[in-house]
Amino acid sequence: MNFRNLFTITLLLFVFDLAGKAQQTGLTTKHGGDEPASVKLSGKVSVPMELSVKKAIVDVKINGKGPFKFIVDTGAGGTVMDQSLAAELALEQDGKATAGDFADPRGITANRNRIRTLEIGGATFTDFIALSWERSPLYQAGGPRGVLGMPLFKKLLLTIDYPGSKISIESGKLKKGSDVVEYQHNEFNLFGIPIKIGSGDYVATLDTGSPGGLSFPNSYMGKLPLVDKPKAVGRATTIGGETILFGAKLEETVSFGGHSFETPNVVFFNRLRNLNIGYGLLNQFAITIDQQNMLIRFAKTAPVQNKS
Q: For the structural domain made of 8-170, what CATH number should be given?
């Protein structure tokens, strides 16, 4: 990664309050949870994926209207959309909830909007809650209208295939192998995968909503073996605010999912609480997520060649 003139936008989302309470009291998704009440698949569903902003973007239809561009974000604790899109679709509101980033998990008040159907190719997700608020500061005009969070795919296999430029959704489960890791939920119920930095063991959040590579909280600057002192390289914007990015090069090899990266460039910024892995390292893989068994596969595949 060349740090020169680097500008990174990351999306980190966590859903609390009313959406969380519905789950904790044992209510079904029909009462307004962030998981769909039902899912219908026309076999294995594969749809094209755009990577124009180093994020996985797909076309979706909501309540039969669209298509609209949404980001598939493993760093999102729920599905969200622009307030303008919720108004355009005249979505039914069902109270309020809060969202935020690691530094301020409850910093934003959002509307809870009921979605009757959301379609991704031949996959139809029925009856769930998405949050909406004014998100225009995060994206330029014409950008994605929202984010698909991981609760949407909780009972399915989801594959984000960067080299193949596609998203796949299917039933089934993963089998353990050299490129499959068991993940753990961090405090925000996101995917914490085991990684090694040199001989040290760490856990990093899998975040397809981040265009960066390996990112750390600022507190790690003095704890890691670095080639040189971190320098300011740009700015990052999360849903909670903007902050300065500091860049440096690791002296150690980073390993996860049976794959290694020698002395990668890394960044530090103070709105993180844990390590974070984004597009800069993930773009070599087809990543399959099995939430029912808490497994993730990192398969290296050849890029699709465009036919002329």
A: 2.40.70.10
